Amino acid sequence: MSDPSNAAAPREFPRGLRLTIVWLVIGTAIFLAVQALQARAERARFSFDAASGRIELRRAADGHFHWPGRVNGVAVTFLVDTGATSTALPLALAQEAGLVLEGSIRSSTAGGEVHGRLARADLELQGGIAAERLRVAVLPQLASPLLGMDVISKLRLSQAGGVLSLEPAR
Asked: Which residues contact 124 (CB under 8 A, 6 or more apart)?
C-alpha cells in the first residue's frame, strides 16, 4: 500500500505567473466591458418607428451622424454627409463588397481634388431605406463610407437638438 504522506503535492504556479494571469483576466474584462458599452451607445444613436417610417439619428461623439447599413451585403456604418452630392466608398470596402469599378472620376472635396473610380452598389440602410444599383464614387484615400445627397434627398429631413430626423417623402 502506498503512504499518502509521500504523495507528491501539487505544484503551485510561480507568483509572477499568477500575477500575470490575474492582470490578463482583469484587462480582458475591461476590454469586453468597453466593447459592450460602445455597441450599446451605437445602438442608442439609431432609432426607427415602423408605424411612421421615421428614422432618428443622434449625433455621435465625433460630431457627425452615422447610419448603419449594408453595401452589397457587407455591413457598414455610413457617415451622413449632407454636403456630398453622391455616396462615396473607400476602395477597400468596394473590393470587399465585390463592386466592379467602371469609369474614372475627379471630384472636388473639402480636402481638395481627389481621383477615384465609379461603381454601382446596392445599399440597404437600417430603417428600410434601400437604393439598388446606385452609382457611387470609390475613393482610395477615403477613411469611411459617406452617404451623400443622392440618397438623403429622397427623404424629408429635419435637425434639432443633436437629432437628425428622416422620413419618407410623401
From this structure: 69, 70, 130
Quote the mean pLDDT of the chain. Answer: 87
CA distance 148 to 150: 5
Asked whether the predicted pLDDT for residue 149 surpasses 90, the reply is yes
How far CA 109 is from CA of 23, 36, 61, 145, in Å, comes to 47, 35, 23, 14
CA distances from 34 to 18, 38, 91, 160 (A): 25, 6, 29, 29
DSSP strand pairing (88-90 vs 129-139): parallel
Q: How far apart are the first and last CA of the chain?
A: 91
| CA dihedral over 103, 108, 110, 112, signed as positive or negative | positive
- Would you state the pLDDT for residue 134? 96
Per-residue confidence band for 44, with pLDDT thresholds at 50, 70 and 90: low
The 54-58 sheet, strands edge to edge: 46-49, 54-58, 163-168, 155-160
pTM of the model: 0.71
Architecture of the structural domain at 49-168 = Beta Barrel (2.40)
Q: Computed over its alpha carbons, how large is the radius of gyration of the chain?
A: 25
